[in-house]
Amino acid sequence: MLVAVRQSSGEERWKAEAERLAVEVERLTAQEALDRAEIADLKGMVAALSERVATLAKLLFAKKTEKQKKKGPDPGDGDEGPDSSLPTDDTKRRRGQKPGSKGHGRRDYSDLETEEHVHDVPPDVRVCPKCGTYYERFGEETSEQIDWRVRIVRIVHRRPTYRRKCHCPVPGVLVATVPPKPIPKGLFTALFLARLLVEKYVLGRPLERIVTALGADGLDVAKGSLVGTLKALCALLAPLDQAIRARNASAGHLHVDETSWRVFEAVAGKANNRWWLWTFVGPDTVVFLFDPTRSTKVVADHLGIDVGASSLAEERHLLISSDFYTVYQSLAGIDGVDPLWCWAHIRRYFIRASDAHKDLKAWANAWLERISALYVAHRALRVSEAGSAEHVQAEDDFAAALVTIDTARHVEMADASLHPAASKVLATLDHEWEGLARHESFPELDLDNNAAERALRNPVVVRKNCYGSGSAWAAALAARVWTITATAERAGWKPLTYLCAYLDACAGNGGRPLAGKALDRFLPWTAKGADHERFKAPPAGPAP
After folding, report:
1. How far is 437 from 371, CA to CA, in rounded Å?
2. For every residue of 373-405, which 3-state class applies, written as one string?
3. Of 73, 91, 88, 87, which is closest to residue 362 (Cα–Cα)?
4. Which backbone phi and psi does 162 adopt, to 5 degrees?
5. In the predicted model, what is the mean pLDDT of residues 42-46?
6. Confidence of residue 333 (pLDDT cuts 50, 70, 90)
């Protein structure tokens, strides 16, 4: 009896232990599943961060160009040969004049102001030391040098006064009118003001360095005086800026881009000083504007688009070349706004995937070759005459390049074994395909948004030198000057000459901004031929 009780007690104990172990196995199994999922998430995060580190490292340390040199096979690439889509070091053209070419010879500087210095042999040396006969002159040898002189000139305007000696009812005192000035009672000439704007906003020199440079040339001026001068110039440039913005907003095609900018002024409702500089590049205008936000409203307000509407105003059609930022995606949803997505941007996705994952190098190079063929065909299409055999062949090549890319993306996306990073790039290509392929309907337009990126290059240099703007009005002035000078450069005009002429005209207008026909002379699309030539020449000095 006692043995049976002990057996029953042992069985129950082992059964309970078995149940406990079964529960523990279930718990551990569930925990293992959770751990595996967490490990997979962490691996994905590590891969994403590694890709980002590789991308940022290349942006920071690599050469700032998309041109790549031909490289031989990497030691770890096995039997893979060098990428045939990239130029080899042996075939790459060296910098400078090409061997065997005619060249342009020495430049002609005879148009510059010239001083002649005669270096003659002393008279006592021009006598024969043996017989005393004088040497006979039969010619001369000449050489040239270019001097760089900066002159700070003080201009004194004297106006003699005359008083009446008779008793006739005429004015009692005569004096010449006050010489016109861009800024009434201002100290500086139009040329000085134009040079100040060019130095700060076109050449990117901070105001502190300009003050130092002026001091080195003999002018001791306070920084505050220049700041006050810039504030006054902001109002003078306003009509010119507004006219350029209005024409830019009515263009049928624009390149659009944006970059960050610091404005060190507190703004209600904004937690930091990070603003955004936007650029809009049209056929004959370039516009810059600052805004505290990076929202769709900035672009819509400039272009006069109602974001809430489903379509543009009647008979209006707008093409926007840009990257894939959500602002431009939202505008593309409006009927009448068609995006032309940037092929250079999608190309960078393939390069970044290859940089982050070395095993994708061959795959990325194949895609770069396809995109390169598209660019070659597009370039041939633009330079050939419409209707010519070359133009027809280029059209066929461009269409074939697009078909090749379209076919490759569908084939590779159907491959379940494709690398996740490659799948991610192809998903972006697939999502943006309609806007990328739309370039076939507009072969006269660029395949990329490099025009907007180039327009932002000068402001980015200024940002590097100045760190941003100290106030909102300073940012507004910077955008205004960049808008005016970039539009002038697009017309082939010299910004210094152009600004000097405009400020001279404001001086003749009593120190007030121009309007009407007087303003039309300074707009590239309404200026006469004589003004076009005048604005291409170096600036003239102040009138006596």
Report:
1. 12
2. HHHHHHHHHHHCCCCCHHHHHHHHHHHHHHHHH
3. 73
4. -130, 135
5. 82
6. confident
Whether residue 258 is found in the same domain as residue 394: no
pLDDT 10s digits, 465-506: 988 999 999 999 999 999 999 999 999 999 999 999 999 999
Asked if residues 366 and 394 have their Cβ atoms less than 8 Å apart, the reply is no
Residues 281 and 325 in one domain: yes
Q: How many CB atoms lie within 10 A of CB 75?
A: 6
Q: What is the pLDDT of residue 1?
A: 55
Same domain, 325 and 410: no
Q: Is the pLDDT of residue 66 over 80?
A: no
How much is the pLDDT for 80? Answer: 39
Helix (H, G, I), strand (E, B) or coil at 464: helix
The residue whose two tokens read 């901004």 is: 513
Task: Enumerate residues 6+ apart whose C-beta is below 8 A from 511.
Answer: 180, 181, 182, 183, 184, 186
Of 345, 211, 202, give the one whose Cα is nearest residue 286. 202
Q: Which of 51, 484, 419 is nearest to 245 (CA)?
A: 484
Domain match, 271 and 288 both: yes
Calculate the alpha carbon distances from 268 to 93, 227, 292, 521 in Å.
Answer: 55, 25, 11, 40
Which residue shows structure tokens 């006269």? 444
Res 73: pLDDT:
44
pLDDT reading at 540 higher than 90:
no
The CATH number of the domain where 317 resides is what? 3.30.420
Distance CA 217, CA 150 (A): 7
Other Cβ atoms less than 10 A from the Cβ of 429: the count is 21
Angstrom distance (rounded) from CA 424 to CA 524: 45
Measured between alpha carbons, how far is residue 261 from residues 64, 461, 479, 483 in Å? 20, 12, 11, 16
Is residue 401 scored above 50 in pLDDT? yes
What's the angle, vertex CA 476, arms to CA 472 and CA 481, rounded to 5? 150
Residue 255 forms beta bridges with which residues? 281, 321
391 and 335: one domain?
Answer: no
Cα separation, 228 vs 233, in Å, equals 9
Residue-range definition of the domain harbouring residue 259? 246-341+456-490
Alpha-carbon distance of 454 to 451, in angstroms, equals 5
Q: Is residue 258, in this structure, part of any structural domain at all?
A: yes
- 90 belongs to a structural domain: no
Average pLDDT value over all residues in the chain = 87
**192 within a domain of the structure (yes/no):** no
**DSSP result, 310-359:** SBPSTT--EEEEE-S-HHHHHHHTSBTEEEEE-HHHHHHHHHHHHHH-GG
- Residues 254-307: tens digit of each pLDDT: 999 999 999 998 888 888 999 999 999 999 999 999 999 999 999 999 998 888
Domain count across the chain: 2
> Under the phi-then-psi rule, with left for phi > 0, alpha for psi from -120 to 50, and beta for the rest, what region is 105?
left
The number of beta carbons lying within 10 Å of the beta carbon of residue 153 is: 11
Boundary of a domain, candidates 448, 481, 498: 448
